[in-house]
């Protein structure tokens, strides 16, 4: 999906493992060449709306929500984050959100636990980034195959379904070959695999395991809500309903994150520009 806004280009390509992020880099290289050669009057800004590796606008919005919730970035160190797989009646959800969370939250001193059933691994390269962050920022990153273990004493929980890394690689290869029969067979196999893990859901009992039973619940939306959007899903209806207002707040930060990314990419001196705006300067043209 490509959308144009002035000289800003937003790209989402989370379908092809080992291809989406590379496509974005290739696309940006072509824009650089076009600008350098005088074909383009301006070098457009690229905003990664989601790829196979990361979902930066979502995860930075998540982080901003967490910062506001806990009262400042300095309050995040030592907070336990449970980034866990959760059951979904669909099979092909991207890995970009869990990968973005473990790669970003470990940069802010938080102790991140990645939990999923056997076989639902994410990119090993992203796990390496999380471990590297721990050495730099005094955080921790661990993995387990128990949702209960991850939720226990957690300050933040992010139960979210995703497809296994190996399965996404297989699906990407099938898409590239145009093998629809193979894709259909893979879907049925993964749906059956998911169905063996229906106990991986954010239930009321699971939430009671968290810090004082009141962990901040996060989701990138839309969620698969048990008893509402599906018979069995990622989160119980009662839990989701209790967190409606915080979820609205979480979602509301994404447009500001995107605007900030565009602003920082296009303004040579962002501090001066913001100070001028804050002072009510008549010089409104800052680009």
Q: What is the structure about, briefly put?
A:
The protein is built from twelve helices and ten strands. By secondary structure, it is of the alpha/beta class. The chain is globular.
Task: Describe the protein's architecture and organization.
With 287 residues, the protein is α/β, with parallel strands linked by helices. The protein has two domains: 1-52; 56-252, Aspartate/ornithine carbamoyltransferase (Rossmann fold), CATH 3.40.50. The chain has helices spanning 20-36, 56-70, 96-105, 124-137, 147-151, 165-177, 180-195, 204-208, 237-242, 244-252, 254-266, 270-278, and strands spanning 2-5, 8-13, 45-51, 80-84, 111-115, 140-144, 156-159, 216-217, 225-226, 235-236. The strands form three sheets. Strands 6-5-4-7-8 form a five-stranded parallel β-sheet. The chain has a three-stranded mixed β-sheet with strand order 1-2-3, with helices on both faces. A two-stranded parallel ribbon has the order 9-10. Helix 1 links the parallel strand 2 (8-13) and strand 3. Helix 2 (56-70) crosses helix 3 (96-105) and helix 2 packs across helix 10 (244-252). It is globular.
Write out key terms for the chains shown:
single chain; 287 residues; alpha/beta; Rossmann fold; 5-stranded parallel β-sheet; 3-stranded mixed β-sheet
Beta-strand content? 5-15%
Could you state the order of secondary-structure elements as H and E?
A: EEHEHEHEHEHEHHHEEEHHHH
Q: Shape, please?
A: globular
Kindly report the spatial arrangement of strands forming the biggest sheet: 6-5-4-7-8
